[in-house]
């Protein structure tokens, strides 16, 4: 099993002036101790699960560019991009830019989006769910077309591109890996089977069922279920001095036994750096054996 760091909050000691230095140290440490990937949310306000709306929140792709400059090996992605926030051609360019400037370490994390309050607040159109899923599928098609070097016009139901040129092309081959977030059984998991290299699910009681649904979609799409990376969100709390390392390892072993390849999530008190070092020393090597 691989371990990924998710950074969902930037309200740290020292306030806004300290965000850049703290984030750089967090990213460098995670990279150095062996985290496989580093992700950020694609939100403009903080979401209720993590704090009030006016807590610090950084724009995702600017942040990933900053992380690229402070890391050497970890993959970089959003968990996950809301398709409604960027036109697909612009999104493909953003991920390509990240990939080129990071030396081929970008991933495209993407989903249909859900935060209507945030969207309305910033004047971003928030169409009905059916339309958002139409946008999502066309965005996936457009990204793949651009990364294949196909400049022919794209005319879909929601998007029309006269010349989807992508220059430079991504360094990752055949293209930056695509992760689709969410467990929707009719569309989201079908899109995973049809377009993606990775899915992101929650590790709750429905996990086994979601994986069974994904397997069924793979059979219908003629896709090898085993070639899709299964990731789950998992919050890491190893304790101030590593007291909770054994239970953390046990929880990860359970996820691995249930079919999860990569656990990715926030680390409690990440800004203190010590939990990252503990995870790198004690958890990542143990998980690698699962």
Rounded to an integer in angstroms, the radius of gyration calculated over CA atoms is 19 Å
- Uncertain runs with pLDDT below 50, 5 residues or more? none
Distance between the termini: 6 Å
Q: What is the count of DSSP helices, taking H or I runs of 4+ residues?
A: 9
Percentage of residues in DSSP E strands: 5-15%
Let me know the largest β-sheet: 9 strands, parallel
Report the principal-axis shape: globular
DSSP, total strands: 11
The oligomeric status of these chains comes to single chain
Mean pLDDT: 97
Proportion in helices: 25-40%
Order of helices and strands: EHEHEEHEHHEEEHEHEHEH
Give me the side-by-side strand order of the main sheet.
3-2-1-11-10-9-8-5-4
How would the blueprint of this fold be written?
Blueprint: E1 2-7, H1 19-33, E2 37-40, H2 60-69, E3 75-78, E4 81-82, H3 88-101, E5 108-111, H4 116-121, H5 129-147, E6 154-155, E7 160-161, E8 178-181, H6 188-195, E9 198-202, H7 207-221, E10 229-233, H8 245-257, E11 262-265, H9 274-287
Parallel strand pairs: 1-2, 1-11, 2-3, 4-5, 5-8, 8-9, 9-10, 10-11
Antiparallel strand pairs: 6-7
Helix pairs in contact: 1-9, 2-3, 3-5, 6-7, 8-9
Short description:
The chain is α/β, with parallel strands linked by helices and 290 residues long.
Describe this structure in words.
By secondary structure, the chain is of the alpha/beta class. It has nine helices and eleven strands. It has helices at residues 19-33, 60-69, 88-101, 116-121, 129-147, 188-195, 207-221, 245-257, 274-287, and strands at 2-7, 37-40, 75-78, 81-82, 108-111, 154-155, 160-161, 178-181, 198-202, 229-233, 262-265. A nine-stranded parallel sheet has the order 3-2-1-11-10-9-8-5-4, with helices on one face. A two-stranded antiparallel ribbon has the order 6-7. It is globular. The model has no long low-confidence stretch (mean pLDDT 97).
């Amino acid at each position: 099993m691989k371990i990924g760091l998710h950074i969902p909050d930037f309200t740290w000691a020292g306030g806004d002036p300290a965000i850049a230095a703290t984030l750089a140290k967090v990213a460098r440490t995670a990279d150095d101790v062996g985290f496989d990937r580093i992700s950020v949310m694609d939100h403009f306000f903080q979401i209720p699960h993590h704090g009030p709306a006016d807590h610090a929140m950084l724009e995702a792709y600017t942040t990933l560019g900053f992380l690229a400059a402070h890391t050497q090996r970890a993959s970089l992605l959003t968990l996950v991009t809301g398709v409604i926030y960027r036109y697909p051609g612009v999104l493909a360019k953003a991920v390509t830019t990240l990939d080129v400037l990071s030396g081929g370490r970008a991933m495209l994390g993407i989903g249909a989006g859900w935060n209507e309050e945030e969207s309305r607040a910033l004047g971003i159109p928030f169409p009905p769910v059916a339309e958002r899923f139409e946008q999502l599928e066309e965005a996936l098609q457009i990204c793949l077309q651009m990364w294949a070097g196909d400049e022919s016009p794209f005319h879909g139901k929601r998007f029309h591109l006269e010349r989807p040129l992508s220059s430079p092309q991504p360094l990752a081959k055949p293209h930056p890996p695509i992760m689709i977030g969410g467990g929707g059984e009719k569309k989201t998991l079908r899109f995973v089977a049809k377009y993606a290299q990775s899915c992101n699910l929650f590790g709750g009681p429905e996990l086994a069922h979601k994986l069974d649904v994904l397997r069924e979609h793979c059979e219908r799409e003629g896709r090898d279920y085993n070639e899709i990376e299964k990731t789950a969100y998992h919050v890491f709390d190893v304790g101030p001095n590593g007291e909770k390392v054994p239970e953390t390892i046990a929880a990860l072993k359970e996820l691995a036994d249930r079919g999860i390849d990569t656990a990715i999530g926030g680390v409690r008190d990440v800004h203190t750096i010590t939990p990252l070092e503990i995870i790198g020393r004690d958890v990542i090597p143990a998980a690698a054996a699962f």
